[in-house]
């Protein structure tokens, strides 16, 4: 048995009691667990501060000085404490202990030189140190505690139980030297050299006791690299498995519908990006292997057209296709748009949503089953078991972030073999992240907008600017444009939000009176057909102002709308703001987005608003969003649970992620199945990690 798997109680300085604590509080059962308790920071214990140099932004520091007085303050709870005055000739600070006062008082000596170690608190013009560490200068001189010292994650609870930083550091100091020569690298030397990585043993030791901050950083990077590397290896493995195992239908030919549409109907030239993506899709569906593809493209980049062309490929090969949208409005809009385009072609299209009546529903079911219906568009009503196709060949899912993995899985079962799947999302996820997270999805990106789009001018405004805002809206409307005014709707405060919306609606109606102006309102509490009616009124230009909740967020297309006003913009997330803004700037006119907020904004809200004002690039916005929220939040629970990253953080470690992916690509290019002797250890480590995921390190 290796030293690493030795039970923690056998480490010098760990008795049974401390072992129990380590297990219960920190999950440390073995030497290897302690080794992986990485410090979150270091303090330089060769540096000393003078009291006169303290400032309120310091973290843990050291001062040499003497205690001149101590006082026990009686009282209950927190008001009971021990305080002491500590001086160093340049000033004095207060030391405070809320527990253990009597004992501490007895053990400390007045007017004797101590090294004080702790984090200064600045309050009411003076500095104090709660629960500082104190070591007699003569002991300090003898102790090995010099240079950079690790700070381990801790908490008040752990401190109370005796697992403070000092104790943990003592344990790692006893462990580290024993491990020298015991930590072989699974990456061969030419590999670590090539990617500039510290060898594994050096990294594991240096991350606890580095000689310099640079060395600590290099150690940390090496350990992050391996996490990211194996993480991506698993993604690659999943992808390979999907590729090898899943059969689907081969769309061997490009047929008459596609050709006719492409040559005669398509109202514009596809962008280069659309063409490229279409080719990727075509190649995927051609050979009988299952396509499972994620299509990312910024708002307005023209994903729908790509989807339609892919559906025509399916139809030309004798299959049916479906398109699933997250909302009724959006499904309706897809249906109308596609019907218009396919107007004079012999392709049958139907729409199926929750509000379709039973009679027509039956008709649709029948037409699907006898194969006379070619394209079915709808909401998640498409997922119901009753919806059976004669021969579904391609399923397109629009605006993926609203559908879960489980829902997609249902689509897979709609034919004998799973139909090809094209998932479209307008919430750009940074490419690095997308490739890593959608393990079994191939990725296509439309990174180019159709020509002639004008930038949208985005501004930030407050309530006090409302008069000016109304004046501006009036001018735009008088020029013949239309305006959206959007209110947040957050589920927990639905009634309140609803009231905000209706108050807003009323004040808009007062400012823009009939008959000169017509105002629409759309919100989640309306019946689908009423919503639809209002949307249609707005889309056809009968109303000039659309007051709405975020029901209009996704996909609505009214090219004549040129102004998007977002009320309480601080309450929206970045991707939502970006989606909403994408509703304008679709026509030839110059467009505007106005973000209304209150004066008081949180730091994050400020960043969101600033980002929106600064850029219109969905990928850049996604990057900021990722930094603010973290990947788990953005992508839902499934993904965050799977990441299994301990040190690495996808928000900040993009470059390392890229490096590790490059390394993985190089490795597979040289040795696709890791058969070579030099790569054996990499494969072993991979298998060990995969296996260990279940209850690794948790067996005592
Ligand atoms: P999204 O990617 O947000 O779903 P859409 O597919 O709704 O974008 O397209 C937005 C608008 O751009 C639509 O009106 C569509 O007809 C138009 N469009 C799509 N591709 C092109 C193109 N290549 N040239 C010009 N307009 C295009
Ligand atoms: Mg769309």
Helix content: 40-55%
Helix count from the secondary structure assignment: 26
- Show unreliable segments: 634-643, 692-700
Mean of the pLDDT scores? 87
CATH class descriptor of the domain at 273-446: Alpha Beta
Largest sheet data = 7 strands, mixed
Bound ligand species = adenosine-5'-diphosphate, magnesium ion
Write up this protein.
With 700 residues, this protein is α/β, with parallel strands linked by helices. 42% of the residues lie in helices and 17% in strands. The chain is built from 26 helices and 22 strands. A 7-stranded mixed sheet has the order 6-7-4-3-2-5-8. It starts with 15 loop residues before the first helix and ends in an 8-residue tail after the last helix. Mean pLDDT is 87; it is low at 634-643 and 692-700. The chain binds adenosine-5'-diphosphate and magnesium ion (MG). Magnesium ion binds next to α12.
Descriptive keywords:
17% strand; 7-stranded mixed β-sheet; Rossmann fold; alpha/beta; binds magnesium ion; OB fold (Dihydrolipoamide Acetyltransferase, E2P); binds adenosine-5'-diphosphate; 7-stranded parallel β-sheet
